[in-house]
Each structure stands twice: as structure tokens, then as C-alpha cells.
Design brief:
binds adenosine monophosphate; 21% strand; globular; 113 residues; alpha+beta; 5-stranded antiparallel β-sheet
Length: 113
């Protein structure tokens, strides 16, 4: 999508610190980390957010969770991690391309503020 910052990152038009890539998804470190380890995993297909996930496109979500589990193992996140997908204004979504935050490396508060 033309004006989507994450589509531009996937296309290599905006630089990113890549963690992982395959045919379906792209993972890169968050520019404003909220934990010692904070990366994002995004589908290469432009999906505007969690509320745009449907029966037609939901296979990418399962794939992304499998990728996250693999990356967590490779990165040694033995103490656990959190996966977050924000949707809309109240959910705190600021980029309109589905993305999964992976946060680790410190104890994370619950419930979130
Ligand atoms: P959200 O607020 O859930 O939509 O998350 C968007 C995330 O994208 C934020 O944590 C930002 O720090 C991150 N972000 C925005 N632009 C970039 C970028 N160019 N490279 C890496 N992370 C970014």
C-alpha cells in the first residue's frame, strides 16, 4: 500500500534492523523499544490491523505465531515474552498495518495501562 510505512520497510524503501524474513512475514526491531528486546512481526500482505483479520487471510496470523515461537527460541527468551497486537485508537494502534509486538527481557506489568 502506497502510504504505509511498514509496506515501505518490507520493500526496503525505509531502513530497518531485520530479525527475520520469509515469504509471508517480516520481523524487525522496534525503533522505540519498550523492553530490552522489542521487535515487530508483520505480514507482507497489507492488512490494516487486527480488526481486518478474516477467515480469508487469518492463516498469516498462525504462521506469525509459529515464527515468533521460533525466534524466541533462537534469541534465548527463556524467561518468557509478550505478544501484543494493538487495534484502533483505544487499542493504541499508530501504524495501520497489522503488526505483532514481541516484548521481552524484563518483567512486564499486567494489566497494561
Ligand atoms: P502501534 O502503536 O501498536 O501501532 O505500534 C507501532 C510501532 O511501530 C511503535 O512501537 C513504533 O515505535 C514502531 N515504529 C514506527 N515506525 C518504525 C520504524 N520506521 N522502524 C521501526 N519501528 C517503527
Amino acid at each position: 500500500m502506497a502510504d504505509c510505512i511498514f509496506c515501505k520497510i518490507i520493500a526496503g524503501e525505509i531502513p530497518s534492523k531485520k530479525v527475520y524474513e520469509d515469504d509471508v512475514c517480516y520481523a524487525f526491531y522496534d525503533a522505540a523499544p519498550q523492553a530490552p528486546v522489542h521487535f515487530l512481526v508483520v505480514p507482507k500482505e497489507h492488512i490494516s490491523g487486527p480488526s481486518a483479520v478474516s477467515e480469508q487471510n487469518c492463516a498469516v496470523v498462525g504462521h506469525i505465531y509459529a515464527v515468533i515461537a521460533k525466534l524466541a527460541g533462537e534469541l534465548g527468551l527463556k524467561n518468557g515474552y509478550r505478544v501484543v497486537a494493538n487495534d484502533g485508537a483505544d487499542g493504541g494502534q499508530t501504524v495501520g498495518h497489522l503488526h505483532f509486538h514481541v516484548l521481552a527481557g524484563r518483567s512486564l506489568a499486567w494489566p497494561p495501562g
